[in-house]
Structures are given as structure tokens and as C-alpha cells.
User: Fold this.
Amino acid sequence: MKANRVTLITLGVADTKRARTYYEALGWEVEEDLGEAVFFAMNGMKFGFFTLEGLANETGKPVEELRTGAMTLAQNFSSPEEVEAMFTRAVASGGTALAQPFKTDWGGYSSYVADPDGHVWEYAHNPFWTLDEEGRIA
Amino acid sequence: MKANRVTLITLGVADTKRARTYYEALGWEVEEDLGEAVFFAMNGMKFGFFTLEGLANETGKPVEELRTGAMTLAQNFSSPEEVEAMFTRAVASGGTALAQPFKTDWGGYSSYVADPDGHVWEYAHNPFWTLDEEGRIA
Assistant:
């Protein structure tokens, strides 16, 4: 498992339709539109939007306090146990726990930690996304 | 040239040494430390830190107004002309020009545009970074 990995960049947006229109005007091609969330495939990782309310709800921060947390970086792992190990390591290293590891309503396992500057990381296991041996989304 | 590309994620940080210590504690391996900026190699892209003052100076936003702009996404291009074309396209699509295309003091060519939700993108040409035919950092 490579440590140097971002597997998902999520932008908090006021309106996923408006955001989709803008990125499509730039030539981006949508992979999946779930309404509240939209995903684009990139090179071994994904890029997406999530409503500001949805992000606030997941990270436990009110919308008006999201600041840099209105954009989150995620690292995906192959199991819930790896998520817990990474969450524990990040907090022990000086990160701030925002959301303890929890079962998500979409069938995954997730957690949120802010780094020393307040940048929000999600450490997650998504059973519907396959990771290759290099930690990239296959 | 693939549109769906992020080639650099930059976190604005108060202290690059503190940030480096934290990410190294998580197992990350530094590729290059320039003091004011630190870079990590990932899969076809880079991850890095830049001082909040440096980011504020480049994007033209005061530190206290950086908000989500304290984390920037960048797409690198093979020439200054492509940077200008992308900058023009983004602004025509509803993006907000933060910094018109300019020659950087590190020998590159850059520009900054905020998307409709205020997320800051850098469109840049870095003559020292090689892009493959898929738009990834080689």
C-alpha cells in the first residue's frame, strides 16, 4: 500500500447541477450522477461534487465553518480495518478527529480527520470501488 | 489531452516543516523540499504544500479570505498557449478570473480561476515537469 495517495477529491458545491454544467463546459465527462453527488473518473482516482449540506453532515462541521473543508481529499483502503488503522495513526500524529470510523448509508466505512492546517481527509473503504496493488482506483 | 485531470493538489499551510512532519508520520515520502513549498510524487500527479502567504500572493486573495482556496487544484499543460486557452475557456464558462496568465518567478506560466463555488484552480505550464500523452505527470 502506497502512502502517497489521494483517491478522491470532493468539492462541496451549492448546486450539483450548476457545478456539472460548468465542468462539462470545460470538457469534463461525467461518470456517474447520483443527484446529491457526481463523480468523474480520472487517472487511478476520482473527482466529484457533493452538496455542501451533505459534506457538512458527514464531517460534522456546519456549512459556514467548512472553509478549506469544503474541498476534501480521500484515501481509499481495501478494508474497514485499514480505515481504522489509518484514522488512529492520523490522530496519533496530530490530526484532529472529525468523524470516528462509521458505517456509511451507502454501504461503505468512513472517517474524517483534519490535518494540522485544517485540511479535511476522508479515510474510507468503498466495497464498490476496486483498488489495485498500488492503491489506485482500478 | 484529457479534460478530466488534476495534476497537482496544493495545501496552503502555516508552516511547511510542521506539515511535512505530519505527513511523514503518516508514511508519506517527500520528493522535493524547497522550504516555501514541498512536493510529493503520486500516481501521475503531485501533492504539495505551499505557505499560506505564498498562495495568497499568487491567487491575489488575502490569507484570511482564502477559505476553500487554501487548497488548490492544478491542471498542467504542455505550453503557455494551452494555459491561455484553458483560462479563457474557464472564464467564458462562468469561472472567476483570479490571476490572468503570467510568467512565474520559477520559470513557468500560470493562471488562477475560481469555479462557481469558489474552488480555486491553477492552470499552468511547468517546463520542468513532463506530461505524457494522457496529461499525467510522467
In short: The two ends of chain B are 14 Å apart (CA to CA). The CA atoms of residues 13 and 51 of chain B lie 5 Å apart. Strands of chain B lie at 8-13, 32-33, 37-41, 46-51, 71-77, 96-103, 109-114, 120-125. Chain B touches chain A through 46 residues (CB under 8 Å).
